[in-house]
Give the backbone structure.
Amino acid sequence: MKSFFIRRITLNLLTFVIMSYLIFQLMVLMPGDPLDILVSTSPGISPEDIAKLKEIYGLNKPGWERYLNWATEVLQGNLGYSRTYGVPVTQIISSPILNTFILASLAMALSLFVAIPLGVFAAVKEGKWQDNLLRFLSFSWLSIPSFWMGIILILLFSVVFKLLPAGGVQTIGVESEGLIQLILDRISYLILPSLSLSFGLIGIYLRYTRNSVVEVLKQDYVRTARSKGLSQKRILFVHVLRNGIIPIVTVVSISFGTLFSGALITETVFAYPGLGRLIYDSIISNDFNVAMIALMLVVALVLASNLMADLLYSVLNPRVELE
Amino acid sequence: MKISIVLVLLFLSASAFGKTLRIGSSQEPDTLHPFLSKMIVGDYIYRSVGRTLNVLTVDGKWEPQLAKYTPSIENGKARFVGKGKNKKIVADWEIKEKAKWGDGKPVTGHDVVFSFKVATHPNVPHSQMDDYRNIEKVVVDKKNPKKFSIHYKNASWSYNRMGLFYVLPKHIEGPVFEKHKGTMEGYAKNTNFIKNPTNPGLFSGPYRITDVKLREFVKVERNPHFYGPKAKIDTIIFKTITNTASLEANLRSKTIDMIGFVGITFDQAIAFQKKVKAEKLPYNVNFKPSLTYEHLDLNIAKVDAFKDVRVRQALAFAINRNSLVKALFSNKQPVAYHPFSPISPWYTGNEKLIHTLKHSRKKANQLLDDAGWKMGKDGYRYKDGKKLSFELATTAGNKTRETVQVFLQDQLKKVGVEVKIQNQQARVFFGDSLPKLKVEGMGMFAFTFMPEQSIADFYHSNGIPTKKNGFAGNNWSSWSDKKADTVINKIEKEFDMKRRIKLAHEFIGIYSREVPEIPLYYRAEISVTPKGMKKYTLSGHRFSGTSAVEYWDL
């Protein structure tokens, strides 16, 4: 277990470094550096000014040298400045990380809460109309584009029934009304985006749970448990679910990483300032430092969640040995 | 009795909260520092909290703001000094007695000197140098710090248009600048506009910024020290909602009260106007023709066929611009035959002066035949075995432009020209392809010319970007015409407005005959406001309507 852990950590670190180099070089390869945009907005800027700025920013150096400079700065704790907002990267990135973490966790919890019981239910009713209906629904939820779902939710709950806010993080100035009011207000802003994000996830998890539980239900030990006269409830929750849920762990771990960076559409539709939107905006506006740090954060999260999946595997299934 | 008590309570509660206007915008401000911001929305917000010496009003007139008057040769407040090539101008300005910063300190000539020093410092990454470039020095009157003289380097007629000269508070920004001026971007990273944007002393306008959340909103509240009339609305919140479909939903759910001019797209506005009528929604959809003209830039340097003026003219003849604006824009965006829009003083619709090249497929075919491009069996034209085919590039994801592209592709195919659509992300298109002349054909985009803005950088041969000049200059067609150069040079030096307009019309004649670009239409500025909103007007030009925000009322 210990050697496995050390080996995986080393491998993850190596992957992280390689990924950082590759992402950096891809960013360098993108046409148009920050100064090209500056030149197009200020026609009077002289060639000397451009040369001087390129020298100062190190934009005239080869890619590998720029990467080394950037990596050295990052290792010393200097993540650089956002070229768009003129503030340190740490300042701009902390709030979106927290916002996305809350949104992603809520969406994940909501989808697991709905999908697992429904998946188990569909498996128990295998081949019957309930199973067919749930399979159809899961496929539909999976197929609905999140931007469409987002707009429909806004139209329904914000425009027609006026129950929930259409977008944002919180009501401006709500902090002055006390902590409880602030929490309730923030929850009201989270409901629609997390619902929108959950639909697709419910579709995925429901199908995985159903298929996995169907497989487990056909195992000999389940038949033995039935013949021993154990109740259906006990068979399901003690014997089936523990084994049936193992494949879900992998899917959930992987999707958490992608959810962190891939909530872009939901975040845009609901004007929710999260990490996905920050990554997109920083790449589009050539905000190099922000894009690099945000992307590396996602890489780290994906690697960590994969490692977590492996560890959880061994906890849930004692037959799996980590070597 | 009970009813009157309720009414009194309602009135009191309404006055306690005051009037608030929440404006939605699809663009987010990068920074709130006036001359470090590169976004239009940054300027839109800034003009509600900061004022310049003078500004172009929504009616298209230059009027003083912080200044008591706009100096001119005619009113004796400006004078020529030197002769010949050394001819310069000195203008005497005076700040309004009542002009104060949001902390009550007076705005003086020392602030103007300081602003000039900051803006021109080599370590400050300034992106809008236009109004500073022609200034040699600023000298403050020793007796009255409200008075100062600006010494201009060149005797240019646009000297007294100082709408982009942003005045900074020396007492707040001075110490920051002195501390950080030695390092590149030191000031830009430490300015109070970034570190402490709610410092009231930063603002000279009718409002002061009181709350900012990056990528979410900017809240401004009435500035008690504003020199002008008390703003009618107590609080304005500028909210960022980047998705334009969500903007409309936010408006209808009352999360925002209006959509500013950086908001919904033209087709969305037309569709929303129909909904407003059908559902009797309490909104006005406002359209105003702007100074922005959408056009096709022909890359003459890159495409050999474009070097022949007959081909360029044929392309213009082949496009039915009237039918384009009717079919796609319900005639709300007028056809353009040259760069100067109907609200520009240089505009002319006189067809004796302009080569309108109105739609005529017959003339287009004739010109292409004359140029040696013969129709092949496949319906496309060929010359020396080479097909008449080129790229049409624009900003990817812009629905309006993509629809226009399909229209143009179809129109040009009818005269045997193949157009290949090659769209790019805006950052690549504007940051690389256009300024480095990489578009292998036509680029579709817009330019905005302020009234009587210098056109030298856009149409003079000196404005052609080259590797040697670091790809500076906006003549992205790489059009070089000696006659046009001469007229542009004359415009730059002509102080008499009437003669200047005549020269501009002469330029239009050359431009419309030589077709370095194919003008398509003048864009309309759009906004959605609540019904009953008073004194609100779109400007249609570079200086947004927030220049007169204090008069807006709900």
Observations:
- The mean pLDDT of chain A is 84.
- The two ends of chain A are 6 Å apart (CA to CA).
- Chain A touches chain B through 54 residues (CB under 8 Å).
